[in-house]
Amino acid sequence: MMIDIIGKKYSDIKKGLNDGSFDPLDLAKSYLDRIEKLDPKIRAFLSLEKEFILKQAEESSKRRKSGNPLSEFDGIPIGIKDNICIKGIKTTCASKILENFVSPYDATAIEKLKEKGFVLFPRLNMDEFAMGSSTENSAYQITTNPFDTNCIPGGSSGGSAAAVAAQFLPVTLGSDTGGSIRQPASLCGIYGLKPTYGRVSRYGLVAYASSLDQIGPLSNDILGISDVFSVISGKDYRDSTSKSNPPYVSDFVESGLTGMKIGIMKGEEDHWDSGVASKFNKVVELLKGKGAEIVELDFSLFQSSIPIYYIIATAECSSNLSRFDGIKYGYRDTSAKKLEDLYIESRTQGFGTEVKRRILLGTFSLSSGYYDAYYGKAQKARVLIQEKYKKFFGKVDIILQPTSPTTAFKIGEKTKDPVQMYKADILTTSVNLAGLPGISIPAGLDEKGLPIGIQITASNEEEKKILSVSKLMSEFDELRIDLPKEIS
C-alpha cells in the first residue's frame, strides 16, 4: 500500500511507524516511487540501491509486525552521502578515482543507525571528496535545487540537502568541513547540524581535512536532527578524537527566549544579499519581541577565516589524498610503463579540477620554505579564532548569523572564479576552525522564492541549547518554509 508522503515531516514518519499507521516496507516503496519519478530532475542520487533498500525495509517490517522493533526508529528512511562507508556498497566520494570502490566495512555512524533499525538509502551526490560549495564538482552529475532547478543546492552535501527538500526522504546524513551541511541546508530550506568536533566518530568517513570534518544530519524538522544526532554521536575507540555520549538531546529545554543573550555580527550586512540582510534583521526584531537580549559582537577578525580555513584544509587534503596513488585501490592507469607515470596518470585522470587545485595548494603550503609562512601562521590564527569565540560565549548564550551571504545562485554562475565560490562559506568556516556546534534553520524565502537560512552557534558540546532554540524558532510562522510538492 502506497503512503502519501508529501508534506510529511520526520516527526510524522516516526509517529506513524510507532503507532502502526505506516509499514516500513510500504514507506520505503513510497519514497522510492517519488525518487524514481522526480530524481531525474534533481539528480540527488548517484545510484539508487533499490534491492539493498527494500531488503532492509522488509526486515524492519517483519520486526514491527512481530512486536520486536529494534528501537523507536526502526523503519525510518535515511539518505547517506557518498563519502560515508556502508559495507558492500560503493563509496566513490563522487570521484572517478574511486568509481568502483566497494566499502569492506561500515562507518561507525552507519553501525549505529543499523543497530536502531534505520533504513539506509545510499548514495547521495556530493562535490568530489567534499570539496565545493555547489555540488557542481561531482565527477558524475550536477545536483539541482528543488526550489529552482536552474540553481545549485549548495555543497558539498548538496545531494543530502536536495533529497530532503524534494521530499525524497525525511532525513539524511552529510559531512561538514567548512559549512558543507549548513550551507546546503540553508539554500534548500531545511535543517542541518554540524556537531561539535569529535561528537560523531569520523571512522568510515572518507577524509578530506581531518581536523575539520564532521558527520551530521539534515532533516525537514528539528526532531529529525536531534534524534539522528543522538543516535550517531558518542565515543568510538577507532577515532581518538571522538567524545563521550551527550545527554539525549530530544528532551528539548522549553525555557523560552526571555532573558537569553543572543550575539549578532555588527556592520557586516553590506556583504550579504539584500534579501538575506532584510530577513536576518527581521529575525533579530522577532527575537527581541520574544524577550531575547541582543548583543552586538565584533567579528572583524573572522574576515580572515576563509584564507585560514583554505590553508589548513588544503594542507590536510594534500596529505589525506596522497593514499590514492593507483597502487593500493581505486582507479589505475593501465597504459603507464614506469612507476612515476603510473602515479601521475592515475591521479591526473582520477581527480577532478577542484580536487587537483586543492592538493596543489596544500602541497605548496606544506613545502619546505613555505610551511612557517603559510601553514604555521594559519594554525596560530586558528587559535586566535578559538579564543575569540571563548570571549564571545562569556558574554552571550548563542550567536545568530545568516548561514549563507546569498541564496542559491545559478548553475555555472561561479564555476569560473574559485575565489568567489570559496566566499560562499565565509559565514560557516570559522565554526569548523573552532570545532563548535552550529545549525542552519529555515527562515523563509527571498523575493525570488529561494530559501534563506539562519545559523545558530553555541559553545562546545552545547548542541542541546542550539536545538532547543531551533525548536522554539521553528514554531514562528514568519520563518516557515513549505517544501516543493512538484519539481519543475
Report on the structure:
The protein is an alpha/beta fold. It has a domain at 10-256 and 438-479: Amidase signature (AS) domain (Amidase signature (AS) enzymes, Alpha-Beta Complex). The chain contains 15 helices and 10 strands. Helix 2 (24-42) runs antiparallel to helix 3, helix 9 crosses helix 11 (353-366) and helix 9 packs across helix 12. The mean pLDDT is 95.
Strand and helix layout:
Layout: H1 10-18, H2 24-42, H3 50-65, E1 77-81, H4 108-116, E2 119-124, H5 158-165, E3 171-175, H6 182-187, E4 191-194, E5 215-219, H7 222-232, E6 261-265, H8 274-289, E7 293-297, H9 305-320, H10 339-350, H11 353-366, H12 371-392, E8 398-402, H13 418-422, H14 429-434, E9 438-445, E10 451-457, H15 463-474
Parallel strand pairs: 1-2, 1-3, 6-7, 6-8
Antiparallel strand pairs: 3-5, 4-5, 4-9, 8-10, 9-10
